[in-house]
Amino acid sequence: MKVLVCIGSSCHKKGSYRVQERLKELVEEHGLSNEVTFGSAFCLGHCRDGITVSIDDEIITGVGMGNVDQVFEQFILNQE
Amino acid sequence: MNNLFETDVQAIKNDVLAHVAKLAYDNELTPANAMKIPEEIIPDGAKPTMRCCIYKERAISAQRVQVAMGGNVSSTAVVQVLPIACDECPADGMKVTETCRGCLAHRCLNACPKDAITFDEKDRRAVIDKTKCIECGRCAAACSYNAIVKHTRPCVRACVPGALKIDMETQKAVIDESKCISCGHCVYQCPFGAIVDKSYITDVIRMINESENNTKYHVYAIIAPAIAAQYDHVKGVTLEKVVTGITKLGFHTAVEAAWGADMVAYLESKELMEKGFLTSSCCPAFVNYIHKSFPKMVQHISHNLSPMAQIGKSLKKMDPGCKTVFVGPCIAKKTELDRGKVSEYIDSVITFEELQALFAAKEVDLASLEETPLDNASYYGRIFARTGGVSEAVGQAYKERGDDFKPNPAVCNGIAECKTALMKANIGKLPNNFIEGMCCENGCIGGPACLNHLPKDAAEITKYGKTAVEQTIMGAISVLEGYEEE
Lengths: 80, 486
Hints:
Strand order of the largest sheet of chain A: 2-1-3-4
Number of strands of chain B: 15
Shape of chain A: globular
Strand content of chain A: 25-35%
Shape of chain B: globular
Largest interface: A-B, 13 and 20 residues
CATH architecture of the largest domain in chain B: 3-Layer(aba) Sandwich
Structural class of chain B: alpha/beta
Order of helices and strands of chain A: EHHEEEH
Number of domains of chain B: 3
Radius of gyration of chain A: 11 Å
CATH superfamily of the largest domain in chain B: Fe-only Hydrogenase (Larger Subunit), Chain L, domain 3
CATH superfamily of chain A: Glutaredoxin
Oligomer: heterodimer
CATH class of chain A: Alpha Beta
Strand order of the largest sheet of chain B: 10-9-12-13
């Protein structure tokens, strides 16, 4: 599974780096490090919709520290 | 937009670039259509505004079109002379003016070491024999009336490396490629726009068109931090609107070159500590200058990429197959494409003047656009655009890493100061351990292809730096991975 967190200016300003770090943490906690690879993307084109994450080419917008755990469960944990 | 440009020379060049860009965007830039541009700009019945007749103006315009399309007029180099346009300056040398009274003292004659001065029998004024005169200027210094002046063409005066000469037969400017560092100072200084920089706008527009709206690959615009001082005085335009404008030109998005500068500051601090003496490598004209005029110093040039190439490398790694275009105030950046591995990271280079021509071609009204944020680099990466910024950032990198190494920079503001520092270092007489070389005065904000050069430009850069979300170099670069790899 490939997870790309957008680090374009809009997402970066909203804290995408912290989102990426939290996702990495969760992946590790659940022992998924071998299955999930992380990367960055420079602007996924959803600048006005909150922080954007691409998981195996599926675009999830509006991610933040408030819902990152839920996004992990729904799109990463339940897909593995 | 009012007062967008500093001079009409820029406006004339921009008109040509915009015409070429428009045809290129429409995939209609055939040789036949390109040949029609001079007549579109100077139509039948128009009155000549700059030269003797409209036919000469058209001939010059045709040469401008050729260079705008990346062609060659007088050489294959980035900086070229348009021979037809270069004919308005008087010949260089010592000149006796009307102020000469034909006095009795003849201090000029006595001062002349070459017996080059005689006196006219009729009006008794001094006459200089050009075949004997060595232009030492002693006669001018001796004259009680300041009647003798040394005339130097603006291009020759601008050229510190001494690459620009006047051909005595044709009286036209000629560039010695073995000395030219492509700094573009002659381009900026020529009051007739007779020296120009070769443009790659047609390459860039082809990349944009062939990307099919960035679906086949992404085209990134890497914008130099000096962008913050280009449109700030234009009513209703903000940097964030310019970023939106860049996407309207067909770029996927704009990325800060200052982000690359953050990485460079970090890497430079490490290399300086290892080697003990270093010159910066971010100013391409400075690097060219060392290669051409101070070959002994080449070993001391920092091995780090420039901020442009550094961020280009990150983008190529993050988004394989993407295209990267640098947009900046710098003409010499166009020559950096030929240095080392830079062409692997950067596909093309255009200037702020050329960016403005693209806005004109696409009829982008910047003031009417919505804003898009631009925020990845730190304060320290952003201040690379003004003199002293590199040294400040390198010093900061030591602080952040907790190293107690003390950098002792020689901050060179402009090429004349670069020359002095390099001459001292060349003979081991420079007390500093780091040379920050910036060929343009005030740094990149003084670049020859800036839209303007205003007194508050440096303050604009500091302001832009202070708005950065990232307060530290490490904060800005920790997001990027693999920047230390070869």
